[in-house]
Design a protein that fits this description.
Two copies of one chain form a homodimer. Chain A is mainly alpha-helical. Helices cover 54% and strands 5% of the residues of chain A. In chain A, strand 1 and strand 2 form a beta hairpin. Chain A binds a DNA duplex through helix 3.
Chain lengths: 153, 153
DNA sequence: ACAAAGTCTATCAATTTAGTATAGATTGCA
DNA sequence: TGCAATCTATACTAAATTGATAGACTTTGT
């Protein structure tokens, strides 16, 4: 399950991506308001994303956050890993949060592990091939469909 | 992430499946010991599986739990749902634990939702096509591989 | 100098997960 | 019939994680 932190991070990045190349930085407070995220919580999240090289920031008047990377290069799996933790079902198949299974007497004979690996790979396949840019595009398309539908009434 | 409860449930079912059609019921205490699961915790888990029609039980001397269904028909996705909860990344795409997204002003335009759906479907594809029987078979194969390897030394 | 931002550290509250305790209900058998 | 084995049921506690807040500090532009 995605944590709120991860969800907030993704939403904030989408907001920042919509401004990419068009305007200056966005203030935390602005993002928090438009995306309905608790300001203080968002501060911590954005800071973390900055520490991981995804965002840049500027202090003082007209300051704020901005994307350092192209939205096309910011992929969901990284955002989830930075903010939420593991994608895998069990720690012993996690690439970034690996831990030996306590329960497994022998990791090799753990049949569940094989299945968990499959699930991880399938999830990762999707999450590492979807970027923030993709989400922005998807949003636009979905909005259009919605308008069409309502005008048909 | 799988909860311990789900993991324990799967391990217990695998243990029960190994006895399927060969012997009488297995006592909670036996399973708990062989699978290294806290007894009291396991009690609650097995009870839940019984209430969902997967296990049957017998009280008194020589009592215990036994599989009501064929291990081939007990699929990982059901076990996880019964014991651990949702498989989906976010509640608004969960088949069994659906909840409207608080954050999404409009569910339809939630781009994340589409991705979460994909991930859910991919995970479900694997988990609903893997049965307890499959795990038992996998275990056996893995054990053979291990023996071969060690005899090569 | 001062106001408008982000930064940092600490802490708290709510929720979920894991596990325990205790009393009760059935069953089989001596 | 009575007792021991075994599951059933309810309630509780402890630990971990997540979500959120507070307040002092730093940097920047005017």
């Amino acid at each position: 399950m995605l944590t709120k932190k991860s969800k907030y991070a993704i939403k904030a990045l989408v907001a920042l991506a919509r401004h990419y190349e068009t305007e200056g930085p966005l203030r935390i407070a602005e993002i928090a308001e438009s995306e309905k995220i608790p300001t203080k919580f968002l501060e911590a999240i954005l800071l973390e994303l900055r520490k991981h090289g995804i965002l840049g920031s500027k202090k003082g008047v007209n300051g704020g956050y901005y994307l350092l990377k192209d939205p096309k290069d910011v992929v969901l799996s990284s955002v989830i890993r930075i903010t939420g933790g593991p994608i895998a079902l069990i720690p012993c198949v996690s690439l970034n949060f690996y831990e030996r299974c306590e329960e497994c007497t022998n990791e090799v004979t753990c049949a569940l592990r094989e299945i968990a690996l499959k699930v991880r790979d399938a999830s990762l396949e999707i999450l590492s091939n979807t970027s923030i840019w993709d989400l922005v595009q998807r949003e636009k398309k979905l909005a259009k469909v919605k308008i069409k539908k309502s005008s048909k009434k």
